[in-house]
Amino acid sequence: MKKYDAIVIGGGHNGLTAAAYLGRAGKKVLVLERRYVLGGAAVTEEVFPGFKFSVCSYVVSLMKANVIRELMLPKFGLELLPLENTFTPLENDYLFRTADSDQTYREIARHSLRDAEAYMRFGPLMGQIGMAVRPILETVAPNAIRPSLSDMGAMKKLLDHFKSLSSEQFEYLTKLMTMSSADFLDEWFEFEPLKASMSASGIIGTFMGPRSPGSAYVMLHHYMGDIDGAFRAWGFQRGGTGAVSMAIARSAEHFGAKIMTEATVEKVIVKNGRAVGVALENGDEYSSDIVISGLDPKLTFLKMVDEGDLPSDFVTDIKNFRIRGSSGKVNLALDGLPNFTCLPGEGHHLRGAISISPSYDHLERAYDDAKYGDFSQEPYMDIILPSVIDPDMAPPGKHVMSCFVQYAPYDIKGGWNDQKREAFGDAVINTIANYAPNIKDIILHRQVLTPADLESIFGLTEGNIFHGELTLQQLFAMRPAVKWADYTTPIKNYFQCGSGTHPGGGITGSPGEMAATKILGNWS
Amino acid sequence: MLNASICKINIMSYYNQFTANTQLKLSPFFERTSQLNESQEWRRWSGYLSATNYELTHENEYFAIRTKAALLDITPLKKYLIEGSDALALLDRLVTRNIKICKIGQVMYTPWCDENGKVIDDGTVQRLTENKFRITSAEPNLDWINHIASGMDVKILDDSETTAALALQGPNSREILNIISENTINGLKFFWMMDTNFNGIPVSISRTGYTGDLGYEIWMNPKHALSIWDLLLEKGRPYGITPTGLHALDIARIEAGLILLDVDYISSRHAVIESRKSSPFELGLGWAIKMKKNDFIGKNALKRELDRGSEWEFVGIEIEWDDLENHYRNVGLSPGLPSTAWRTSTPLYYNSEQVGYATSGTWSPILKRYIALAHIKHGYSNNGTVLDFELKVEHFKKLTPACVVNTPFFDPERKRSCPA
Predict the structure, then answer these.
(1) Which residues of chain B lie closer than 8 angstroms to A238, CB-CB?
(2) Domain end among B244, B276, B307
(3) How far is CA A201 from the centre of its chain?
(4) Which residues fall within 8 angstroms of residue A136, CB to CB, at 6 or more apart?
(5) Which of A68, A238, A396 faces B67 most closely, judged by CB atoms?
(6) Are A310 and A490 in contact (CB under 8 A)?
């Protein structure tokens, strides 16, 4: 039986990141991926011949600058193209925000001069708040119950940092941590489509509406992508999000990691309260000094190990960890480009995000459907046309369209089946057709993914894209459970490094990097 | 809500003709480029009005160079046709490369020097036929070439306005040209050229460029300029063809480690003082000086320089990230990176002594590294040497480490490779 220093379960982007860091530190690492393709939720697949889909995760937000640098990702294929426009089509008009502040000012002023002025102040403020929050994101979450010496040091540093914040920063930080995104934005703006579009980033991946308290933080989480300014660790990866994963995988291999696909881990082998290796579905076993799970907390603790190996209060915490899937994904292969009634033809508006978010009510009604066990009849959508930014994603002249769709509850009444999936797909197409009627004529192929599909294909429990909601009670020292937010687990030599750990979801590389740092710091 | 209904401006209506009186020269492509230039930002290039960026920012154009296909109007380049039985001898005497081995259809990049071995200009020499060459340059050189040619059997023609040129640069450039060209360009090797037809219009394509990427330059009669432009844009659209301006080009050429006259060096012909002049060795062009050649202008001086060693070296530097970030964090800001390439001479120190200066630098969006080209005194220019780069953070001068590194910073395999 081959012996490794570390085995990483799951070749998602965080697992690969952790593997690369461990390899870089000279450790012998094995990554085991269940699927035929690497990347987990950050994966590119040619679902329909000639058309490449970023099947699940579709944009790169917040990819950490030091991860990019330390793992030499540009050398291995990281190429982030700008994706800075947001186009919100309306019934007879539209709202189009671009990277150019004068243009955006003029465009918002067309709807509300007051909002245009406020918008100029809002961006820099969110930037400041982002700077204020950043040290939290970069600190290994402490054990809040029994802090270690290094935890105390980290907490002291954070405390000092918070003392340095201005009262304005503190005020807004508090508001963002507690309010709903709708309430928060109401304090700033009046033009409904602007507020709704901005609030939408507060509901992505979360089973909440814009009027649910706590959604403001999720909004902030999405703003963080702008922190690095010109570094622009935010954008569209050439070749789709799978190419980010492949860049990290190549880096990991460069640092000596061995990566196996179609290698499904059945169980972590635990002996005397200590992880000693893994057993594969096919009967193969691999032993190692440590085992790291890149899976979500439910799979990491309730599937990969036996409950009996864990403290019962911890098992309860993990069972209560909120991981409700709220979104689906519809990927379209198109014969041409959608033609929006409110802004016909081609233009820069097709080169960024297209947000179907005309009003809070639209979003809340979409949420209402889901609250009562149905998918949204007129969902919120975050759409991009990857082939407009990167023509290699589709055959010449053809296009791919990625629609992130909310809401689609995992626990739909009667359960998901083929009929419901198609009905959900129809609701999505019909909603798009309200704004771009030609959509129905140009679809060559459609791939509809419900939360149940996201679970079965990508191993995302309940189809939650963030490995657990990004709500206050599940962040920092509470993610995924109190006392075990520092990437350790109650089982010795068993670690976690997925999005279900601090600082959470998105293509950031952060959980993987911080887990590796923690593991290497304690390596004995 | 204010005036939502009254003033509905379609901000996408950018195909509006912009006309202005200008004393600058207009390229034969101007009728198109002026319509496409959404920012109406122009720069001067050899007396031409030349697009700085077509969009409000240059970012998309930069990424077109690196991930799609960028179309640049390079007509302002100076071009000379040299024809006659002594054409080869003239060029071989003029430039530092060995033109005698330049085959028909081959292109050579080369600097040329004055008799003191100081660089006058740099450009490419294309061998069109046995006895006919085209040489491109940044500045007017007719007078100098005529001077060298005295007594030789050659005809020298200023081709600057009689040939229009476009650069198509980026990974998709080959695919686009293959669709348009009557003959496949798959076999066209790096620094070679060929004649072909686009829709029956004769053009020459050279596999050259100023981006360090897969790319081509297309040479044509100016009367066909608009037809060729339209054809490229139409056929290139599904491949992401993007009209691109000089801001994007400047970033790409620094990544490629390519020098620019009047920015990275001054032509010896109008350097007022001796210290402003550079030898090709001092510009990192030692590889292009063929000392085994019988004779060429500047050879003796370069021989002497080779014997005693050059005073300066031209290198790439990388401004190290962690320290840069800390400088900004200390004042509560995220790292201030230049959004466009800069051309301000910036001091470099070693143990508080100034040992050099960077002449152009940029944040590289594809490499995610802050890079610059610099003149460093001999002895401080070895790879890995860490110098102090002068940086202004919130108006205050700081020193931050910068490491001497190899150029080109960006050198993709596709630049030189041919399809199997």
Answers:
(1) 67
(2) B244
(3) 11
(4) A158, A476, A503
(5) A238
(6) yes
d(CA A402, CA B389): 44
Which of chain A's residues have a Cβ under 8 Å away from the Cβ of B365? 80, 232
User: Are A15 and A497 within 8 A, CB to CB?
Assistant: yes
Q: Of all helices (H) and strands (E), which one includes residue B313?
A: strand B312-319
Cβ A82–B338 below 8 Å, yes or no? no
**How does B204-215 read in b/e, with b if 16+ C-beta sit within 10 Å?**
bbbbbbbbbbbb
Looking at the fold, whether B187 and B321 belong to one and the same domain comes out as: no
Whether residue A71 is found in the same domain as residue A116: no
Q: What are the helix (H) ranges across B208-315?
A: 225-236, 246-255, 299-308
Using alpha carbons, list the distances in angstroms from residue B368 to A441, B239, B318, B329: 41, 25, 11, 19
Residue A494, H or E segment: strand A494-496
Please give the residue range of the domain that contains residue A7.
3-42+65-78+237-322+466-521
Omega into B171 within 30° of 0, i.e. cis?
Answer: no
- Taking the C-alpha atoms of residue A79 and residue A38, their distance in angstroms, rounded to an integer, is 18
Contact B284, B373 (CB under 8 A): no
Residue range A185-205: mean pLDDT, rounded = 95
Nearest to A79 among B335, B363, B366 (CB): B366
Q: Given an 8 Å threshold on Cβ–Cβ distance, is B56 in contact with A99?
A: yes
Determine contact, residues A483/A145, Cβ cutoff 8 Å.
Answer: yes
One-letter amino acid of B283 = L
Q: For B32-59, what is the mean pLDDT? A: 95
Hey, how many other C-beta atoms are within 10 angstroms of the C-beta on A445?
Answer: 14
CA dihedral B341, B66, B49, B9 (to 10 degrees): -100
Q: Does A74 sit within 8 Å of B368, measured CB to CB?
A: yes
Cis peptide before A451 (omega within 30 of 0): no
- Identify which of B60, B321, B337 has the shortest CB distance to residue A229: B337
Q: What is the CATH number of the domain that holds A513?
A: 3.50.50.60
Position A491 in a domain: yes
Residue A370's contacts (CB-CB under 8 Å, 6 or more residues apart) are A207, A326, A376, A406, A407, A408, A409
The mean pLDDT of B8-25, rounded to a whole number, is 61
Rounded CA separation A165/A173 (Å) = 10
Asked whether B256 and B248 are in contact (CB, 8 A), the reply is no
Query: What tens digit of pLDDT does each residue of A44-78 get?
Result: 999 999 999 999 999 987 788 889 999 999 999 99
Contacts of B338 in chain A (CB under 8 A): 230
- Only one residue has tokens 């990230």, namely B321
pTM above 0.90, yes or no: yes
- The pLDDT confidence band at residue B278, using thresholds 50, 70 and 90, is very high
The reply to whether B411 falls in a domain is no
- Phi and psi angles of residue A451, each rounded to the nearest 5 degrees, phi first: -55, -35
Per 3-state DSSP, chain B is made up of helix, strand and coil in percentages (nearest 5) of 25, 35, 45
| Same domain? B298 vs B380 | yes
d(CA B117, CA B148): 15
Q: A359, exposed or middle or buried, with CB in 10 Å at 0-12, 13-18, 19+?
A: middle
User: With bands split at pLDDT 50, 70 and 90, how would you rate the model's confidence at A205?
Assistant: confident
- pLDDT over 60 at A192, yes or no: yes
Domain ranges, residue B338 = 294-405
Question: Read out DSSP for A234-253?
Answer: -BEETT-THHHHHHHHHHHH
Q: Does ipTM surpass 0.95 in this model?
A: no
- B364: tokens are 């590289």
State how far the alpha carbon of B318 is from the alpha carbons of A476, B348, B356, B386, in Å. Answer: 35, 12, 14, 9
User: What's the structural domain count of chain B?
Assistant: 3
